[in-house]
Design goal:
By secondary structure, the protein is α+β, with helices and mostly antiparallel strands. It has helices at residues 10-18, 64-72, 103-109, 148-168, and strands at residues 3-5, 22-26, 36-40, 45-49, 52-58, 74-80, 88-98, 118-132.
């Protein structure tokens, strides 16, 4: 059944790169805090090395992932096969939030296509890589990406996005610090 890997080999990389959606889970240290799971898409994930990955974080109404990472760094990313042979890959690691005002942002940004609404890059140093069967994951067809988020961001413009993030992304639902810039 499931296997553990020391690094992202070519087979795992091909599987991950073929997925059009992935899921990100984080949690605060406070046991009363809210666990967060977020779906991600729009070709925002990149493999940077055999034990390092990143994704482009887009502006949204919440800031849970960033707040949790700033507090404790724990993150897991999950990729499921919705087409073809069943499989699930989980990437566990220590994540960091790289905001546009930080020096590393411009270097990491080169890995991604420009997308309206970018607010940070989540970089993850992997400490566990595993797969499992995925036998209960349904078969589903990808019909295309949704473009409402990027259209919304384009309509707001840079100044509108800055104002929105200032209002909505300064702290998490558990009052943990979110974006600083």
């Amino acid at each position: 059944m499931g296997k553990k890997y020391d690094l992202l080999n070519e087979s795992l990389q091909r599987f991950i790169e073929a997925q059009t959606i992935f899921f990100v889970a984080t949690a605060p240290l406070d046991r009363e805090g809210h666990v967060n799971v977020s779906p991600k898409g729009l070709n925002t994930f990149r493999i940077l090395g055999p034990r390092r990955v990143a994704y482009l974080d887009l502006t949204g109404s919440g800031i849970e992932t960033a707040a949790h990472l700033k507090e404790n760094g724990r993150i897991v990313l999950m990729f499921c096969a919705f087409q073809g042979p069943p499989k699930i890959v989980r990437l566990y690691g220590k994540g960091s939030v790289v905001e546009p005002h930080q020096p590393e942002f411009s270097t990491l940004k080169n890995y991604f296509d420009p997308i309206e609404g970018e607010r940070a890059i989540i970089a993850v140093e992997l400490n566990r890589i595993s797969d499992s069967c995925g036998y209960s994951v349904p078969l589903m067809k990808h019909e295309g990406d949704r473009h409402q988020l990027t259209a919304w961001a384009r309509n707001l413009g840079a100044e509108g996005l800055h104002k929105y993030r200032k209002e909505k992304n300064r702290s998490s639902i558990d009052a943990l610090p979110g974006l600083s810039g």
